[in-house]
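Support request, priority: normal
Reporter: lab tech (M.K.)
Component: structure prediction queue

Hi team, I submitted a job for TLCD2 protein from Alectura lathami yesterday, and the status page still shows it as pending. I've pasted the exact input below so you can check whether something in the sequence is tripping the parser. The sequence length should be 175 residues. Please let me know if I need to resubmit or if it's stuck on your end.
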Amino acid sequence: SLSPHRFCLYPRMHEDLVGTHPPGAHSLVAVSVGYFMEDFVDMYCNQKLHQSWELLFHHSVVIICFGVAVLLHQYVGFALVALLVEINSIFLHLRQILLMADQVHTACYRLNSIVNLGTYVVFRIATLAWMTRWLFLNRQHVPLATYAVGTVGMAIMTPMNLILFYRLLRSDFFK
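Reply from support: The job had stalled in the queue. We restarted it manually and it finished. Here are the results:
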């Protein structure tokens, strides 16, 4: 995982998210591509399209962007930063489980809602903002095709995450 500890062990990652990454990072990103592919197929086969189209679209973008990193053996550090977003998924999934268990009016649900929103801001919104900034500041060092994939990916993911954030706020805090 990408933590401050990893940045201390691999200080070049501060400046080079293209070619520098810790051992095992390429495998982590490759396994993540496999996970997103499996989850895509599962949703496609087992959910109604009108319920899952946003996640299917999200997964498609991630599979393409992470797939580029895996195939090129570059931008793996950038993909590691992107995986920080998934820390919030723990609380999003726990929220769904609590909803399915009809635990909406419990202290556990309330606590999870607060932690979910906090991790959403830190690990989704702030991470995506940082990634967008990094991509913009390093555009002269990134080949045009890769820059286009990254820019389109960020242009898709950022509004999707802001819309989901609004929905979470509305649902859990402004009923």
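The chain has one domain: 25-174. The chain is about 75% helix and 0% strand. Let us know if anything else looks off. Ticket resolved.
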